[in-house]
Amino acid sequence: MSDLDRNYASPFGRAATRADAATVDAGLRAYMLRIYNYMVIGLAITGFAALGVYMAAVTGDPAAAAGRIANTYLTSFGVAMFVSPLKWLFILAPLAMVFVISFGIQRLRPATAQMLFWVFAALMGISLSSIFLVYTHTSIVRVFFITAAAFGALSLYGYATQRDLTGMGSFLIMGLFGVIIASLVNLFLASSMLQFVVSVVGVLVFAGLTAWDTQRLKNEYIYGYAGEGDVAERSAILGALSLYLNFINLFTLLMQLLGQRE
């Protein structure tokens, strides 16, 4: 934010003084901190929900098992969550919640939007709980910390860089749609090579989106698009949602590339 003295113009049309720049800088830091706090709490809810569902779904006692996936014995709850058609409800529910929050947030009170974000994070955790059946727990922890380190570095770059990343946005969105389409096609082809390519390209796309979204959120505050009061709170929740989704997608794609399977 050292360039605020040069770039920021006050509401009165004059160049900002150092005091003006310092005020904006302090407000920006508080705004971004609120976004990151929401995101981190959301990730914590997701992690606890995923682990809780997994622990309730598996059993080490074959006699008490109601079903089995590979070498893992499932409780009746596990069969319902991982085998029965109910699993599709929890796979698709987070997607529905993203649309509800993204397109309806301007009509919601901040407290309601915040609650919906927590519900979404919990549903995402439930949908991700199956990774504990696929990958070793050690590799899950390792990839999580790799993702956290990469996300932190990319977000810091997006915040601190003087380079305008706006032009990357349309390119990254096209890349995102390409990844989604290729992933849907691979559901039918089941090609390991295509899955590898999708994972690599997806990591690059969400790495770029992390830096781009961070700079976008920073600029929204500086130029007043984030608003004040309830508007700013809703903007912070929506910003946290975008960064949260970048983190989750980076994590799942890196798991496909670096995770060690059971």
Q: What can you tell me about this protein's structure?
A:
With 262 residues, the chain is mainly alpha-helical. The chain has one domain (4-258). Helix content is 76%, strand content 3%. It contains ten helices and three strands; from the N terminus they run H-H-E-E-E-H-H-H-H-H-H-H-H. The protein has helices spanning 4-7, 18-57, 76-82, 86-104, 110-128, 131-134, 137-160, 168-189, 192-222, 230-258; strands spanning 58-59, 67-69, 72-74. A three-stranded antiparallel sheet has the order 1-3-2. Residues 1-16 have low confidence and may be disordered.
Quick take:
The protein is 76% helix and 3% strand.
Would you count the extended β strands for me?
3
Q: Please tell me the overall pLDDT.
A: 89
How many separate domains make up the residues? 1
Helix content: over 70%
> Which stretches of 5+ consecutive residues score pLDDT under 50?
1-16
Which structural category do the helix and sheet elements fall into? mainly alpha
Specify the overall morphology.
globular
Q: In order across it, which strands form the biggest sheet? A: 1-3-2
State the distance separating the first and last CA atoms: 46 Å
